[in-house]
Each structure stands twice: as structure tokens, then as C-alpha cells.
């Protein structure tokens, strides 16, 4: 039973890496989800998999600093400008839509 603590630490580290990699593929922070996966080994992986895919969210430009942000953001993270929900013509395609368009040769 000497290795029980080491086995759990190895298992938790593997789950943390898994949660971080799942989150990174879905457009979220690796380190935040790594921490969640480390604290909650199996549940962190499930939560990272079930979380919203940020790469599927529509984007828009901040009118003040021209930073690209998600369309549902209420405030620009760079300059702090309060943002109204954009009109249909101001919405940019999501990251995954741009990847599909590039693969199809449309961009």
C-alpha cells in the first residue's frame, strides 16, 4: 500500500492533462481546466467535454478598439467598452466556420 498515494497522484495528473487538452481543443483555457481536472479527476474531464465549444460561437469586432470578441459579450475585455448585441451584418463567422470555409477554398 506504499504506492497508493503515488498511483492516485499519477491518475489525477493524467486526468488533469486530459481535461486541459479537451478544453484547449474547444477554445477554452488549458490551465483553468487543467486545475479543474486535477481537483476533480474524472468529473473535470466530463465537464470539459460538456462545456460550451467557444470555437462555435459567432464573433464580432469591438467598435472602439477593433478587437475580435464573441458576439454575446457584454463588455470588451481589452478596452472595457460596454457592447450591445450586434446586428446581423456585424456578426463575423465562428472559428470553426472559418476553418470549414478555408478547407473548402471559399476564403
Brief rundown of the structure:
This protein has 107 residues and is mainly alpha-helical. The chain is built from four helices and two strands, in the order αααββα. It has a two-stranded antiparallel sheet.
Write up what this structure looks like.
The chain is mostly helical and 107 residues long. 49% of the residues lie in helices and 6% in strands. It has two domains: 4-51, no CATH class; 55-104, no CATH class. Strands 1-2 form a two-stranded antiparallel sheet. The longest helix is centred in the N-terminal third of the chain and has 22 residues, at 4-25. It is elongated.
Into which percent range does the helicity of residues fall? 40-55%
| Biggest sheet features | 2 strands, antiparallel
Total discrete domains: 2
- Overall shape: it is elongated
Low-confidence segments, given as residue ranges, are none
- End-to-end separation in angstroms reads 59 Å
Provide mean pLDDT, rounded: 90
Task: Spell out the helices and strands N to C.
Answer: HHHEEH
Strand order of the largest sheet: 1-2
- Our Rg estimate from Cα atoms comes to 19 Å
Number of helices: 4
User: Structural class, judged by helices and strands?
Assistant: mainly alpha
Portion of residues in beta strands equals 5-15%
Number of strands: 2
